[in-house]
Amino acid sequence: MPIMATIMNSIFLRLEKIFAYLQGKGFGADTVEREVALVLNLLGTAPRLVLDVGANKGHWTHFLLKRHPNTEVHAFEPQPVCAQTLRGRFGPCPNVSVHQLAVSDAAATLSLYFDFAGSGLASLSKRELDHFGIDFTQSIEVKAVALDDYLATSGMGQIDIIKIDVEGHEMAVFKGMKEVLASATPPKVIQFEFGGCNIDTRTYFRDFFQLLSKQYEIYRLTPFGPELIDRYREIDECFRTTNFFLKLKHGISSI
């Protein structure tokens, strides 16, 4: 390829990445405080009950409690070292419960894979990350639950916010909460992450849009705030870390 063509191709690739980022595609890394601010704005009131699914070390819950310290939070995290960190971090908070559990589509004992103990990349899939030089061969067995089963016996009321960050298995979480979504009191706001891990699980943004768009307004977090996604477009299939937010539509209680 001629030198000038190579230079122009490099420029266009950089511009493509920049424009995608400005749309929120790939903007999802290191935005936890912004994420919490957006879910609270979409909710529009002080949250009473929140689920943090895939809590890791508790950064998301930390920013939530900074703004609403009395909110009841249930943090789900299967990694033992992270669950221990969560108990130490939120031990003084009687309104925070830590559950050393993975969340999926059914109750099971599953393998959790990671590159090191406590990793934020830990996933129920053995991801292929050799191209990043990441050795993803360590694993442990963990217990998993479906939210439908768990919530049916928990005595919890309507959930204000659910945050889901389970490294590619977000669709499994949604499949395990179909009864909750179809109930008279579904969650008011839901946040979920989408990115490279969805390549490993072969899930697409279209799957989420088709499942959820009739019941929820769907937003993507961008550097300029939320962007409403009112229709599906193939160009929205971007496998760089992106955060999506669901706001329950007025007058709709089931899908």
Task: Tell me briefly what this model is.
With 255 residues, the protein is α/β, with parallel strands linked by helices. It is 33% helix and 24% strand. It has one domain: 3-Layer(aba) Sandwich (Rossmann fold), CATH 3.40.50.150.
Description of the structure:
The chain has one domain (23-99, 147-248): Vaccinia Virus protein VP39 (Rossmann fold, 3-Layer(aba) Sandwich), CATH 3.40.50.150. Helix content is 33%, strand content 24%. It has nine helices and eleven strands. The chain has helices spanning 3-22, 32-43, 59-67, 80-90, 147-154, 170-175, 178-181, 197-201, 205-212; strands at residues 49-53, 72-76, 96-99, 102-104, 108-114, 138-146, 161-164, 189-194, 216-222, 225-228, 242-248. Strands 3-2-1-7-8-11-9-10 form an eight-stranded mixed sheet, sandwiched between helices. It has a three-stranded mixed sheet with strand order 4-6-5. Strand 2 (72-76), helix 4 and strand 3 (96-99) form a beta-alpha-beta unit. Helix 2 packs across helix 3 (59-67). It is globular, with a radius of gyration of 19 Å. The model is unreliable at 251-255 (pLDDT under 50).
Q: What coarse outline follows from CA principal-axis ratios?
A: globular
CATH topology name: Rossmann fold
Order of helices and strands: HHEHEHEEEEHEHHEHHEEE
* Percentage of β-strand residues: 15-25%
Distance between the termini: 52 Å
Q: What is the average per-residue confidence, as pLDDT, rounded to a whole number?
A: 92
- Strand order across the largest sheet: 3-2-1-7-8-11-9-10
Which CATH class?
A: Alpha Beta
The number of distinct structural domains comes to: 1
Radius of gyration: 19 Å
Fraction of residues in H or I helices: 25-40%
Q: At the fourth CATH level, what is the homologous superfamily?
A: Vaccinia Virus protein VP39
In the CATH classification, which architecture applies?
3-Layer(aba) Sandwich
The number of distinct β-strands equals 11
- Total count of helical runs of at least 4 residues: 9
Largest sheet: 8 strands, mixed
Q: List unreliable stretches of 5+ residues.
A: 251-255
Class from helix and strand fractions: alpha/beta
